[in-house]
Amino acid sequence: MNKKELLETILKNKELNHMTKKDAELFLNTTIDTIKKTVKKGEDVSLIGFGSFSKVRRAARAGVNPATGEKIKIKAKNLPKFKPGKAWKDMF
């Protein structure tokens, strides 16, 4: 499912039949942007029943260029992390 299909699914919900496509897209974009900005600041976002978003630090490490076999240094960096909630994991 891509973003367009997700928006179409949201609009098919009978309880949201008052929402226009533009409103649904604005809501989804605002939600995603808010999660990104909050995690970037180092704060966690927890959505009960869905999961948690957080920022993790990946340490610097040694790597190998697969094309040449040359050893390279990989810099430390921050990455987003998602951990599914218990209710979501229990579905599977």
Topology, please?
Elements: H1 3-12, H2 21-40, E1 45-47, E2 51-58, E3 61-64, E4 71-74, E5 77-84, H3 86-90
Structural write-up:
By secondary structure, the chain is an alpha+beta fold. The chain folds into two domains: 1-41; 43-92, Irregular (HU Protein, Chain A). The protein is built from three helices and five strands; from the N terminus they run H-H-E-E-E-E-E-H. Helix 1 (3-12) crosses helix 2. The radius of gyration is 19 Å and the shape is elongated. The two termini are 18 Å apart.
Concise account of the structure shown:
By secondary structure, this protein is an alpha+beta fold. Helices cover 38% and strands 29% of the residues. Belongs to the bacterial histone-like protein family.
What's the Cα radius of gyration? Answer: 19 Å
Give the tally of β-strands. 5
CATH architecture of the largest domain: Irregular
Overall mean pLDDT? 93
Tell me the span between the first and last alpha carbons: 18 Å
Fraction of residues in H or I helices? 25-40%
Strand order of the largest sheet: 1-2-5
Total DSSP helices:
3
The biggest sheet amounts to: 3 strands, antiparallel
Family: Belongs to the bacterial histone-like protein family.
InterPro entries: Hist_DNA-bd, Histone-like_DNA-bd_CS, IHF-like_DNA-bd_dom_sf
GO biological process, one term: chromosome condensation
Pfam families: Bac_DNA_binding
